[in-house]
Structure formats: C-alpha cells, structure tokens
Amino acid sequence: MHNGHIANFKKIKRAIVNAIRDEYFLMVEGSTDSEWAFALFLDTLHSLGYSPKSPPEAMLGTIRRLNELLDEAGTGEPSLLNFAATDGHSVVCTRYVCSRTDEAASLYFSSGTRFHEYKEGGFYRMERHDRGQDLVMVASEPLTFERGDWVTVPTNSILTINKQTVLIHPIIDKYYQQNPAYSRSAAFVESKGMVAEPIVPSKPVKNDTKKPSAMNGKDASY
C-alpha cells in the first residue's frame, strides 16, 4: 500500500526499471508510482535475502534507493512515502516525506482487544480489557471519533507490528529532524489533497460507512 506520491515520477521511472531484476519488472502490470515503488521494494527484499528482519530493512532500503534516484533527477519537490507491506506474519509501515521542514501525510494506529459497534447506527470504538493487545489497526486517518483510540505515528518514522507488538522508530537520514519541538509545515501535504493531522471531534458522530467484517482476536489490519 502507498498513500502519497513520488514527485515527478516520470523523471525516475526509467531509472527504477533499470535498477530492478527482470522478475519484478515483469510483475508490474500498470504504470503508477505505487506499483513501481512496490517492485523496487521486492527487489530490495530479494537483495537482502528473506528473513523475519528483512521487511523493515527492505522498506528502509527502498526509501533510501528512491531518495538517491530523486536526488539524481533533481525533482524539486518533496515525495510523500507512506508505505505499508506485510508478509502475513508481520506488518511494516512508514510515515515519510522527503523534507526536513514539511509534514508527511498522517498515519495512526490503534490497539486493543476488540473493535466493535458499541451503538447502532455505525458507532465504533476500540475496547481494551487488559494490558494486552489482540488487535492492531493502522489507518491514514482515525476510523472512530474516540480520541483515546488512536496514536499518531510521528513524521519520518517506521512502524512495525510483530506478534501484536507495536514498535516505532525514527528514520534517521538527511531528512531526520533532531529537534522534537520543531513544527513542520502542513501546507505541502494539504496542497496534495491529504492531511497531516486530522482534527478528531470530541463527541461521537454517526459513521455512515458499512459495518466492517468481523475481526478475530489475532488480526493485524492495515
């Protein structure tokens, strides 16, 4: 999954094609930046050799390779690289922008023991019966109107979920902002039709979306 855009993708598409193995080139059936970014991720994963630690390393490697290609092409504006991938056992997600001053598109996670409709009419919330977490959800924007349900993933961070354990680490590269009090600008991401930090109402509002399918206690949704 890719939520965002690769700046001036046409300038680096040929470079991506030349950088990946034939087997991943042949897998791509479309022309979107998301498909080619995934092909680059698979190629990076192949280079590392698959192991339980490989998906996070491959995701970071994919971002590094994209940054190198973008720098060579001189694209001129930031790229928004919110990615998510899973091997069926673990999940790795990023909230990332190729900038030291701009915000990335928003990303949140919620964890607990049950996500359910607590009131008819489409009102949902995450329940926590103990300190354990049987269910982890990741979303670009909060799916409920309960403020306590959702934790913001910081800009330029990688989130991993393994055996229902959630870990967040900063992505330390040239776009890493060392000052935790620094306020990034939301203007760029909003100009692309996305949001940096959605405002969550303090009171529940009816959700007209269809009722989600049942989730068992061991799912990791994204």
TrEMBL record:
CDD domains listed in its UniProt record: YafJ
Top-level lineage group: Eukaryota
A GO MF term: glutathione hydrolase activity
Biological process (GO), any one: glutathione catabolic process
Sequence segments annotated as region (Disordered): 200-222
GO (cellular component) term, any one: glutathione hydrolase complex
Name of the protein in its database record: (Perigord truffle) hypothetical protein
Record lineage: Eukaryota, Fungi, Dikarya, Ascomycota, Pezizomycotina
